[in-house]
């Protein structure tokens, strides 16, 4: 098992970070751990609607997704359509400038920690 896979499995370390390893290493380690990995390109998104649409696409959100911050929080806290021992959300681009996104991501990490599953968010 790779060192990165072992680290990804550490629920207490999971959080929101800037990616500081090669993207290929992250993809390989997430796969090695059996984690579900989602990738969203929010670099070109302008405003809440486009950010939410891109995130919904990336996670293959169900039809009930309401395209608002509460719906995003609910969806990221469910993921029943993508069961996995842990999750990695890779966001291409800088933070969208949407402060609510940061709140949702932090809350999602905390929620999954209570479920004893790692939920990692990386900005690349």
UniProtKB/TrEMBL annotation:
<dbReference type="Pfam" id="PF01337">
    <property type="entry name" value="Barstar"/>
</dbReference>
<dbReference type="InterPro" id="IPR035905">
    <property type="entry name" value="Barstar-like_sf"/>
</dbReference>
<comment type="similarity">
    <text>Belongs to the barstar family.</text>
</comment>
<feature type="domain" description="Barstar (barnase inhibitor)">
    <location>
        <begin position="36"/>
        <end position="123"/>
    </location>
</feature>
<protein>
    <recommendedName>
        <fullName>Barstar (barnase inhibitor) domain-containing protein</fullName>
    </recommendedName>
</protein>
<dbReference type="InterPro" id="IPR000468">
    <property type="entry name" value="Barstar"/>
</dbReference>
């Amino acid at each position: 098992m790779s060192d990165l896979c072992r680290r990804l499995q550490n629920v207490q370390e999971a959080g929101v970070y800037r990616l500081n390893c090669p993207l290929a290493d992250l993809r390989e380690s997430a796969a090695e751990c059996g984690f579900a990995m989602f990738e969203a390109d929010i670099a070109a998104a302008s405003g809440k609607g486009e950010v939410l649409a891109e995130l919904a696409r990336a996670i293959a959100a169900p039809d009930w997704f309401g395209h608002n911050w509460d719906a995003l929080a609910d969806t990221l806290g469910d993921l029943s359509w993508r069961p996995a021992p842990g999750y990695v959300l890779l966001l291409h681009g800088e933070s969208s400038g949407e402060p609510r996104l940061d709140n949702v991501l932090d809350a999602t990490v905390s929620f999954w920690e209570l479920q004893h599953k790692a939920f990692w968010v990386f900005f690349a």
